[in-house]
Amino acid sequence: MDNDLHQRMQRLAARELKKGTNPAQVTELALQQGIPNDIANAELVRLAATGNSMFLGLLKKFGSRSEQINAAAQKSLQQVWDPAGEAITLNTFEAAQAKLQGTTKKYLERPTLPRRNLLLLLLPIVATALLSIFVPGFAQGIIQLDDGNGIFLFLMPFLPATIYVGYVFSLQRDIIKMLIAQEENWIYSPSERPERWQVLVKKYPELFRKGNTGQNFQDEFWGTTEYHGKSVQFWAAIFEYVVESTDSKGRKNRSTHRKNVFAIKLHKRLTSDFRLEPEHLGIRMLNFFRKKEIDTESAAFNKTFAVFYNGSKVEKQLEIVKTLSPSVQVRLLEMKEQFGRFTLQFRDDAIVIAFPGRMMRWMKTNFFLRVAVDDRDKAALRERLRSVLDISGDILRFLD
Amino acid sequence: MEILLIIVGAVVLLGALYVVLFNGLVTAKQKVKEAWSGIDVQLKRRYDLIPNLINTVKGYAAHEAQTLNQVVEARAKAMAVSSSDKTAQAAAENQLSSTLKSIFALSESYPDLKANQNFLELQTELSETEDQIASARRIYNNNVTAYNVKVHTFPSNVIAKRHNFGEEQFFEVDPSEQTAIKETPKVDFGITENTVPQPEKPVLEADKNL
Fold first, then answer.
1. Using an 8 Å Cβ cutoff, are A271 and A278 in contact?
2. Among residues A107, A289, A386, B68, which is most buried (max CB within 10 A)?
3. DSSP assignment, residue B188?
4. Contact (CB<8Å) B131/A398
């Protein structure tokens, strides 16, 4: 019976939330519909505690007489930990999320839109193909144009469709991430933020001073997760940068690189400040000649990681080896097995991990076939995020 | 002249290879020793924590003298085993791990003990130490594998034989012990919450040994 009432209240709250009804009036409406005050209140408290941004917005606008609701709302408005010290709350990225939700709504209302747009953008390709077949010398004529650069002209009709497919796939990824963030009560920012790089590169130059242009952070998550009864605060993001170079013939090359970045807050400040990087012969030789190589008791660990630090070996070795206890070493080796080569910075009250590759590669979700998120994509990404966080949480147990 | 140069070159190369292989064996053996001392540090840390644990527990569960004595005996036995006999030491340490688990199982029957802050801290510390021992053991065994592979494979086995580099022993957990360590033993003392004895000053055989 109680369950029924709770469910009815949830439905009522969701409906009234969309309409922008004053929370006080929602309670009155609930009473009119035979839902007791305590159940209505409990559901509104739950809504405030989950940090539902629409509900928090309404509370801000109309206020609430219930102390419990206000307390829950206050708590969810509290700042989360950020490695750059930026003031981040649940409302910080409301506008960007609203935009994403708006686009999602548009596609949900018109599910044939992606397919129709794609078909329209494929028309220039069809036209070029037909002209190439029926007009003798058309394709050859274009390709031979302008000193052989005509090939690019020939490929031009493919460009709009390619860009659109890329846009839709990127949108799908953003929506999946936003849904996970909502379910886990994390904060998510889909935007690309170059200004964020300006701050973080000062704090972690060893990790983020990469590329010559286009540095930014995107797809950022902030949140808290539980590990063995301890709360683990984290920030996760994709770090993107562009490397531009000119070869001996004066041709410009441009390549975009992406790294997954995780920062985990420790419950204490570390006495040692050092970085682990994937070991290779060059690094080993360099460290050997600089007399800075630090080896632990594990042959496998020494073969996998090189330790970088400032200061003399005599001063730092003891602190670093103490931090790299057997359990930490074993977890780091497990992490390498799972995620490949990564760089890890131990600094102040945080560890920051950066590893290449995509967290989401092949998606089952395909808006061109059906505008809906495939649960397998959500589960796969959630599992990837969780496994990084779990293994980091496990490392934290031995650092704290 | 050319043949002479080829012979000298080959001898120099062989000499360099000999040095590299010999140094590789020495380094691998050294890593085994280092890894063993890593285990030793953690084991000593566990030995140091046990007297505090016994003192805390006996204040609440004086009637469990037998369990406490078992832990004290297992600790004494583990400390007495020569570190050169890895198999015996592994068996003694596994025995100690098992008896420690039974102490923690005791707390289920003594709510006051379970709520004791000192006991909780010791429990956390011991559980972390167990984890460190397991990790140190894994590192040690990996190093032993790397070293033993060198001792048995060509061409380093030739140098190993010549310089008496013998095989190293693994520090292994007996599979049955491993299960015992992972599972919390179920201990039934036939005590209900109403019949839990009040803390009293115990007289333990354990006191003499600590």
1. no
2. B68
3. -
4. yes
Nearest CA in chain B to A228: B124
- Cβ B183 vs Cβ B100: under 8 Å: no
- Extract the tokens encoding B48: 């140091």
Contact A297 B38 (CB under 8 A): yes
Q: Is the dihedral of CA A13, A17, A23, A28 positive or negative?
A: negative
Find chain A residues with C-beta within 8 A of B136's C-beta: 297, 326
Closest CA to A346 of A289, A399, A387: A399
| Residue A261: both structure tokens together | 């970045």
Contacts of residue A342, defined as CB under 8 A and 6 or more positions apart, other chains included, come to: A278, A335, A336, A353, A354, A355
Tally the C-alpha atoms within 13 A of residue A54's C-alpha that lie toward its C-beta: 14
- A330 touching B, CB under 8 A? yes
How does residue A240 score in pLDDT terms, banded at 50, 70 and 90?
very high
- Using CA coordinates, name the residue in chain B closest to A334: B135
ipTM: 0.70
Burial of B163 (0-12, 13-18, 19+ CB in 10 A): exposed
A340-385 pLDDT, tens digit each? 889 999 998 899 999 987 777 788 999 999 889 999 999 999 988 8
Whether B138 sits inside 8 A of A330 (CB atoms) is yes
Structure confidence by residue, pLDDT tens digits, A44-89? 887 876 667 788 788 877 877 788 888 777 766 777 889 988 878 7
Angle (CA) A322-A400-B124 rounded to 5° is: 100
Q: Which residues contact A250 (CB under 8 A, 6 or more apart)?
A: none
Whether chain A has a CB inside 8 Å of the CB on B38: the answer is yes
**Across the strands, what pairs with A246?**
A252
| B35/A330 touch (CB, cutoff 8 Å), yes or no | no
SS3 state at A28: helix
Question: What span, in angstroms and rounded, lies between the C-alpha atoms of A172 and B79?
Answer: 61
Rounded CA-CA distance B186/B108 in Å is 10
In chain B, what residues touch A398 (CB-CB under 8 Å)? 128, 131-132
Please tell me which residue of chain A has the smallest CA distance to B131.
A327
Q: Is residue A320 within 8 Å of A345, Cβ to Cβ?
A: no
Among A329, A397, A398, the residue with its CB nearest the CB of B139 is: A329
